[in-house]
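Researcher: Here's the sequence for the chain we discussed earlier.
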Amino acid sequence: MEQNWEKYHKGKKFTKIDPSNLLPLPVGWLWSNFDQISQRVTVGHVGPMKEEYIDRGIPFLRSQNVRTNRFDPEGLKFISPGFHIQIKKSTLFPNDIVVVRSGNVGVSCVIPEFLKEANCSDLVIVKQPYGILPSLGAYYMNSTALRLVNAKKVGVALTHFNTKSMAEMVVPLPPIEEQKFLLAEIERLFSIADEIEQTITTSLCQSETLRHSILKRAFEGKLVPQDPNDEPASILLERIKAEKARNAAEVKKGKTLQPKSPKRKIKNGN
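Model: Thanks. This is the structure I predict for it:
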């Protein structure tokens, strides 16, 4: 695999990573990093943005648009084509991997195909990975690599993850055909997990609805069959009222409400 590195990795020089402190890999795999398996690792625009947002234009991503393994359009901003050209270093294209660098550090997703061109701030960008399938790279960042991301956090008031840390982030690299198989299997199992989660969620909702229905029927007298020989609640209420009145009278007379203890008869000589 090392011999073919330059052929399949755009002429980048292969730098062997010392695996002594890393887990052993299957045959045919090797340890690499994101700098070696992408065009470059860079960062989104850094600077004030409040005055640059417009109603329509070039999509502008922020950390809130990056969720675990998915792009979230909620709250997406836009900038003018002119400003987009000024900050072209942070231009995004489909298949770029973007990583949150402050706040929810390390969360990653792939830029989807429908975002033909965009821009961003406060994100680390892995430009056009070609040594690893983009989605597989994002899955790795959102799982095994999170431990490494947390180890590389810097800052006190604001925790952030920098470009250098991302460029040097080690990644296990399978052969490309094996990557395709792994990605297909991951997505198949995730689909099953989503179905199970949906079934559980639906069951929980049904269970809660059933609880409310049981209580409603109970207090409407519909939970058990009605017996016409049962004492009406009105008679029970009258008896309770009479008992309360009797107790009140006893208290007013100074008598205790507690049962009296039986008197012991004392015999002479005892």
